[in-house]
Amino acid sequence: MAWARRILRVNLTEGTCSEEPLNMEWAMQYLGQRGLATKYLAEEIDPKVDPLSPDNKLIFATGPLTGTGASTSARYSVITKSPLTGCVACSNSGGYFGPELKNAGWDMIIFEGKAEKPVYLVIEDDVAELHDASEIWGKSIWYAEDWIKEKHQEPLFQVAGIGVPGEIGVLFSAVVNNKHRAAGRSGVGTVMGSKNLKAVAVRGTKGVTVADPEAFEAAVAAAKKVLADNAVTGQALPTYGTQVLMNVINEIGALPTRNARDVQFEGADDISGEAMHRPRRSDGKPNLVRNTGCFGCTIACGRLSNIDPTHFSVKDKPEYHHPSGGVEYENAWALGADTGVNDLEALTYCNYRCNEHALDPITTGATIAAAMELYETGAMTKEDTGGIELKFGSAEALVAAIDALCDGTEFGKLLGLGSKRLCEKFGKPELSMTVKGQEFPAYDPRGIQGMGLTYATSNRGACHLRSYTVASEVLGIPEKTDPLVTEGKAALVKAFQDATAAVDSTGLCIFTTFAWTLEDIAPQVDAACEGEWTVEKLLEVGERIWNLERKFNLDAGITPDQDTLPQRILKEAAKTGPAKGMVNRLEEMLPEYYQLRGWTPEGVPTQDTLARLGLA
Known about the structure:
Blueprint: E1 6-11, E2 16-21, H1 24-30, H2 33-44, E3 58-62, E4 76-81, E5 88-93, H3 97-103, E6 108-112, E7 119-124, E8 127-132, H4 141-151, E9 158-161, H5 164-168, E10 175-177, E11 181-183, H6 188-194, E12 197-203, H7 213-229, H8 231-240, H9 245-251, H10 273-277, E13 288-292, E14 302-305, E15 324-325, H11 329-335, H12 344-356, H13 361-376, H14 382-385, H15 395-407, H16 410-415, H17 418-425, E16 434-435, E17 438-439, H18 449-457, H19 470-473, H20 489-503, H21 518-528, H22 535-556, H23 567-571, H24 586-597, H25 607-612
Helix pairs in contact: 1-2, 2-22, 7-21, 11-13, 12-15, 13-17, 18-20, 20-22, 20-24
């Protein structure tokens, strides 16, 4: 129950679609979505494979709770080997695509090989067919979604796909569904483009069943009440979205600014959640239209915004004079504070473009920020930028850089390398704020010490969603810890990593854990799925997933000495705020973390640990 128990395997080389049963033995060990799809990936590809070769595989995966009606049961993930990092990649998205795939009767889709020419996949319940995508290749995913719905006369299709950057090899292309929900990080859309796969359209009418409907309904109702009664999930996120954090993180001196040269941004309030509510001078309307929610969500943290039609970015572009996905915290930080730009309308336009052409806004903004520092140091010139005066704080330069990426210009292709390769190319590798090749997000590890260990040890490169210690270190959830101390952070990071891996495998949203613990989640999984699913079992599943990912990365050639941070974070002290004079003290946390993980002092899982988790 809960699982559809079916996989759709699509061989793009042969142009075939076939059904096979889900491996239920693996489902009992890895649950679904992130964990189960990673198991399939690890079993079916050589970890050393070139991520952009036909031998890499791309998996769209739901969790057992996806589409069930549990609060936030909208999630699906895209799993592959990352072209940006060389690590295992798993990017998570909400909206309505995941539940539609589940309602069509599929737990996951495994894409293998490469199509001879551009194609898109159409799934209508049990029927799956590949179609010619030549008319939408070279177009945005916004255009492609509308075209597919019109072509097939099916307005209820849920469509996920890529834009031009994913087609031309920009290394941080995302997969976007519902026009502003994204499996955003690690270049999963780039792999999709390398396979000549433009989009997936799904219509499902089968429904989703659970093992014990009465117990499930009771568990879901109890869990929804917890969300409603919590200050974060019941009030702050519905009102301000994740943008509630902008001023909070800035005040504690942990907002990476101007490529992390600074830890506080003087323009933070101008691009904050509060600013999105304020009337603007030109027309008296706020940037925010309303909040939005994914399938089954009772939090509704999403933002729907509009852009001032007189703003320079859109005044001659009426196609953007409509409400669409507004900035959330990570987007506003990456496109704003990290580039020194405090123009909310410009950031909203840039976010529209990232959604329209399926770009990861975190890596996009951080790469532009690195390019701005390269430009200001003289390493990069106007000849390189196509004439753009790429200075920190310039909204015009930011908009021009985003347009270059979306339009596939020479400068856009240069930015499409990501900051690590870009900075290496211009002889300044130290200016890339990355771990394992992936740009770190909106929390400076000098001001939040646990996030330094989180970034350094993340299996997909720098990431906040693998271990959100900000919940504890800043928000006091589930208990308050001091963000400026290292003591206890190794245990905190491990606990967050294991719990998050389990939650990511259920089909539920990680934002629920601002209010829920596994005590709230386990009864929902247990009532929906066969077998016994206790808190202890979920934590074991999470630990197994974490070690499987680590093992994949080691086999892929990712070495433990890459569990580190940029020298700027380790050597250059914060200039202002509560962390003034401090660097991240990773060396104090990493040995204890390895020990708690059951790994060698060099960071390799021991045979005992692998055997205990069934990975030997």
